[in-house]
Amino acid sequence: MSSCEMQRAAVALGADRVTVAYPQGLAAWFDALVEPDTGDADVTRWVRIDVDEPESYRVTASTGRWATGLDLGDALAAFWDSVTFQLIDRLADAIALHAAAVRRGNDLVLLPGPSGAGKTRLALWYQAQGFALATDEVVTVSLGPDPADANGLESAALRRPLFLKGPEDAGALLGGNGLATLRSSLGTMGWIAGAGQKLSRPIGPGMIVFPRYLAGTPFVATPLTPAQAGLGLLEHCVNVRNLPRGGLALASALARRVPALALSYGETGQLTGTLDVLTRQVLAAAPGQDDFAALCAAFTARAASRAAPAVTGPFSATAAPTRPSRSSVPAPTVARFARRLTVGMATYDDYDGVFFTIQSIRTHHPELAGALEFVVIDNHPGGPCSQPLKALEKWIDGYRYVPRGDRSGTAVRDAVFAEASSELVLCVDSHVLIVSGALSRLIDYLEAAPGTRDLIQGPLLYDDLRTVATHFEPRWQGGMYGVWASDARGLDSCAPPFDIPMQGLGLFACRRAAWPGFNHRFRGFGGEEGYIHEKVRRLGGRTLCLPFLRWVHRFARPLGLPYPNCWEDRIRNYLIGFTELGLDTAAMEAHFAELLGAEAASRIVAATRLELAF
Amino acid sequence: MIAGADRLLAPAPGVEVEVIEGECLAYHPRHARAVYLNASAALIWGLCDGARSVRDICRMIQDGYPDVPATLPDDVAVALAQLEEHGLLVVV
């Protein structure tokens, strides 16, 4: 029998700790999940793993349970089962849920469910969307010390290896996430570097998803009433007998305060563009019950519309097509309109936005009739909005339809400048309103400065139509460089223009010849603000706020985004833009490492650097 | 009228209840089981106070909700049977 030097440590769940001991030679399987033994762990609760012989392990615990002759996978599985049991066995001041959990900022998304429901699979999918993995096994929820803090709830997540019980794709699913994996009799365990990071302060649950994964089933998100959610929580409560009233009060408190849904799905591809968007909206907006139910219905409908019709079989009377049909791409408008100003916008399936933006300009800026060209870049040609967008050319003077699907994302706005027939160009998002008189004054301002290389913007009006944001503060927040801010010089619409560091690009104007353009490698969304402003300045222009140029932007997307918007594109664009400009990327990389986890962020950065090297 | 219309039913001893927006979560400690009652079931359960018969309960619901369907007595009987089955009600 070989002897191994033993390492002593502790595993924590909230304020509770269990003492653990393991051979030094196995440290790699434990170090990221345990805490140093500071002597305050309960020594009456312990679990240890010993090496009996090479490749044969023994697990013993203070409960009196033991198992010998185990291979490493089974030994680690038994070890963690025992640790988990001891942490929750006497837990009486919090409800312990058999649940996975993922974190985004200060919010936890709880994924309660029985074994085999797909909790780990769903948690790994969330991780791929930029959420931090907290646990795939146990979450505790208690009433926080400050009822006024967030929703008055505190959570703790048990850090331990992931465990996938379905053998058919477990290795691929876990291995595809860059994990170390180990097989046991009960399934595959995976270790994610940085997963289950200890929270520096307690955070509260922001959403509950009860998953049910069954291959081949459609995506259905069913909102739960608080009482239904409370039932689900109690069904997955693992310390019921310790809790007053069977945990009824705690489960009810949690269910009252946190929106919950039951999720059925058949493959993770159904979740992108549906559950990720729904989750982000719920965490950002904390919707009421009716709004939450509407969101669930909308995303379920969206998933259904994206699903390909099933082929009914060789003997059916009619065979359904296996792919959704697409419209043909309309021809671009031939006519061009060199006018005093081209108003251009790129759109992806936002017919309503285009219609109301343009018609609002025509209605509320009647003095400019005949003076404007409207250029609409259809970034999803052949999509559901293409024909209606094309049809507007019959009704709107100066309107041009331009299909451009070759380049997706924010940088397609270069096409507005490439297609504009006028010297002066105003580029807007396809869901922007502009205050009356502002466009006339803009044209006058630019015509009075021929040859200017300036980038012209204006204050964003909030939905109250009083509060303004004149610029972006150049700092990182929430995965974005730039935070809305207000300069007092912009509060008076008659005040003179002033320099700003950057601003949201929902509305900006530039001479067509002075437009510097986005980096041709940009893809998807994110990374454009700040980058384009710096480029303008380096080319001799100023970045200005014109206080009279006020605009309103529709931000809410109750039905979600019709296009993908992912962290990979955003980080990639920032890195490309900063590299082009020779700017230091350290702060950007540190921000995303904190937001997404060091491994997830560094993986994207490394892939982008490799791409830039060629 | 349904059979057992004169029975008196009351909440089982020890059952814990949380009323959440018109619905109920009930927990039976002996069975260590939680039960969800939708708004209709919660209303019926709440009317079972040991002094009202099944007939009384049906009449009270009809008085309060004149548009209830004619199947109300059968619906109430089904609900009461389920509540008894889950151990939430006992016959007085």
Short description:
The complex is a heterodimer of chains A (614) and B (92). Chain A is 27% helix and 27% strand.
Notes on the protein architecture:
The complex is a heterodimer of chains A (614) and B (92). Chain A is α/β, with parallel strands linked by helices. Chain A contains 15 helices and 31 strands. In chain A, a hairpin with a 2-residue loop joins β13 and β14 (187-191). Chain B has a single domain (9-87), classed as Outer Surface Protein A, domain 3. Chain B starts with 8 loop residues before the first strand and ends with a strand. The model of chain B has no long low-confidence stretch (mean pLDDT 86). The chains are: A alpha/beta (614), B alpha+beta (92). The A-B interface holds A 225-228, 230-231, 234-235, 240-241, 245-249, 251-252, 255-256, 289 and B 16-18, 20-21, 23-25, 27, 29, 32, 34-38.
Task: List its traits.
heterodimer, A: 614 residues, alpha/beta, eight-stranded mixed beta sheet, six-stranded mixed beta sheet, 15 helices, 31 strands, B: 92 residues, alpha+beta, Outer Surface Protein A, domain 3, three-stranded antiparallel beta sheet, two-stranded antiparallel ribbon, 3 helices, 5 strands, 24% strand
Assembly state of the chains shown: heterodimer
What best-fitting shape of chain B do the alpha-carbon axes yield? globular
Q: Which whole number gives the mean pLDDT of chain A?
A: 85
Low-confidence stretches of chain B: none
> Which CATH architecture of chain B is right?
Alpha-Beta Complex
What is the highest CATH level, the class of chain B? Alpha Beta
Query: How many domains is the backbone of chain B divided into?
Result: 1
Q: Count the DSSP helices of chain B.
A: 3
* Structural class by sheet pairing and helices of chain B: alpha+beta
Which radius of gyration of chain A do the C-alpha atoms yield? 28 Å
What proportion of the residues of chain A form beta strands (DSSP E)? 25-35%
CATH topology of chain B: Outer Surface Protein A, domain 3
| Shape descriptor of chain A | elongated
Overall strand count of chain A:
31
Mean pLDDT of chain B: 86
Give a quick account of the main beta sheet of chain A: strands, pairing sense, barrel closure.
Answer: 8 strands, mixed
